What we know:
The protein has eight helices and five strands, in the order H-H-H-E-E-H-E-H-H-E-E-H-H. It is mostly helical.
Amino acid sequence: MSAAKPPKKNVVYSQPADTGTGTNVNTQLVYALDYLKSTSNPMRLQDIAIVTNTPLDTDLVLLEKFKSHDRVQYDQKTGLYSYRHDFNFRDKATLLTEIQRQTRRGGGISVRVLKEPWKEAPQAIEELEKEGEVLVTRTVKDGQLRMVFWNEIKPDEESGGKQFLDLWHQLKVPNDVDLLKALTSEGLQATASEGPAPKAPSSTKKKGKRSAPRQRQVRITNTHLKGEIDLSRDYHAAGK
């Protein structure tokens, strides 16, 4: 009796082994760019290749694509590579300058975008918010920072506005006599105020009993004919 054969395993030999970064040049390029974007310090080409497990330093096609990418910045003096972000800052003062510049253009900046070049950007934005320098919007779900805007109205300006309102309310309106004198001294005159508009006659009549129409007496003016012609009857010419 022959021994039973072990069951066959479902092995697909047409697919390469998973190496983490794949063998496609474009896929390896994406891995290298993503890592360079995530780090804030310039790096050597060999270090990027080791960390990303890509042949970046040996594959000429991959290396050319990497160098010619518009987001890759190369320093010829140091031989180091860095990622070209939309914004370039490393401190709170420069961060505020970028926020001011973007707000003057008519919009805010995504905090996620500001976090890419500087990981401490969210903490700096919260400090600027407490200082009254910026305004922020947050997510409804967890209250995370979403957008940031420059606050053009500073707290000291708000207090100045309050002082102005207090002074405004302390002003007294002069009486009519003093006001007319002041206008006359300036060569001005007060305009006559318009009287109230006359009310339109009401079209509604009071409800109640309708009175009978009054009988108007007919006045006879031809008194010189009295006694000769009976004016209460219709006149008929006499026949010939």
